[in-house]
Amino acid sequence: MPADNPASLGLNESAAVPHYHGHRERLRDRFRSAGAEALSDYELLEMVLFRAMPRRDVKPLAKQLIGRFGSFAEVVHAPDQRLREVAGLGEAAITEIKLMAAAASRVAKGQLSQRKLLSSWASVIDYCRTAMAFADKEQFRILFLDKRNQLIADEVQQVGTVDHTPVYPREVIKRALELSATAIIMVHNHPSGDPTPSSADIQMTKSVIDIASPLGISVHDHIIVGKNGHASLKGMKLI
User: Fold this and answer.
1) pLDDT class of 117 with cuts at 50, 70, 90
2) Rounded CA gap, 57 and 117, in Å?
3) Which is nearest to 54 in space by CA: 85, 96, 84?
4) pTM to 2 decimals?
5) Domain with CATH 3.40.140.10 in the chain
6) How far is it, in rounded angstroms, from Cα 225 to Cα 89?
7) What's the pLDDT score for residue 158?
8) What is the average pLDDT across 204-218?
9) pLDDT tens for residues 54-100?
10) CATH code for 117-232?
11) What single-letter DSSP state applies at residue 3?
């Protein structure tokens, strides 16, 4: 028996093919030929959603997400619960979105671990912003370095609230000694987006330095990241 075709079903060919099929192919072709920079944030997000929603026009949803969260980066780093509040965004799509955030962080961390951190400062900043800048709660992270300034470990020490993370200087140094680290870089995020250091940030950093110095552990910097940029306490001559 011959297979059904659009004509035998009383449909023309254009009706059998979803109207968004050609749009998807054009996006893929543009991505392959010109790269990600040729796509807007919502178009790149469309491509992320393609696999999770193969039978739906995802352009309106992608535009809605960018409008709600602000940018591609802010969408992929948005908390799961906030993503679930978006009508029409199911668990499969959320998983695809969070996969993008995980992949970006893993790539940035891989690049960081292969280099001497002090000679690749841009990579340090890129990694810290990728990992933390869009988090909805404050996190305090430490990069532990050996005597060649290569990464030994990268650990989140504390997770706090939207505007505070408790940090205990003696615990920071205790962990550095456990890992035989000779230097550390402290990093935390400001969910408000403004990376300007507070007086508490400066005082805590000085307290860590006071404990670390007699033990031969250098504090190379304390970096604060936010979606609006970053601040280096050392660069600002605050330490």
Assistant:
1) low
2) 44
3) 96
4) 0.65
5) 117-232
6) 29
7) 81
8) 95
9) 888 999 999 999 999 988 988 988 889 999 999 999 999 999 999 99
10) 3.40.140.10
11) P
Residue-wise pLDDT for 166-209, tens only, equals 788 999 999 999 999 999 999 999 998 899 999 999 999 999 99
Token pair in block for residue 41: 């944030």
Q: CA angle 134-138-199, nearest 5°?
A: 115
Categorize the per-residue pLDDT at 10 as very low, low, confident or very high, splitting at 50, 70 and 90.
very low
The distance from CA 55 to its chain's CA centroid, rounded to whole angstroms, is 29
How many degrees, rounded to 5, is the angle at CA 223 between CA 192 and CA 200?
65
Structure token digits, residue 148: 């060649």
Output 149-156 pairs: Cβ under 8 A, ≥24 positions apart. Answer: 149/116, 149/117, 149/118, 149/119, 149/183, 149/220, 150/113, 150/115, 150/116, 150/117, 151/112, 151/113, 151/117, 152/179, 152/180, 152/181, 153/179, 153/181, 154/109, 154/112
State the Cα–Cα distance between residues 106 and 102, nearest whole angstrom. Answer: 6
Q: Are 203 and 197 in contact (CB under 8 A)?
A: no
SS (H, E, C) 157-201: EEECCCCCCCCCHHHHHHHHHHCCCCEEEEEEECCCCCCCCCHHH
Q: Where are the beta strands (DSSP E) in the chain?
A: 139-145, 151-159, 183-189, 218-226, 229-232
Query: Which of these, 50, 55, 49, 60, lies nearest to 17 by C-alpha position?
Result: 55
Q: Is 226 helix (H, G, I), strand (E, B) or coil?
A: strand
Identify the CA nearest to 221 among candidates 130, 121, 135: 121
Q: Hey, which of 53-62, 134-143, 147-156, 205-214 has the most confident mean pLDDT?
A: 205-214
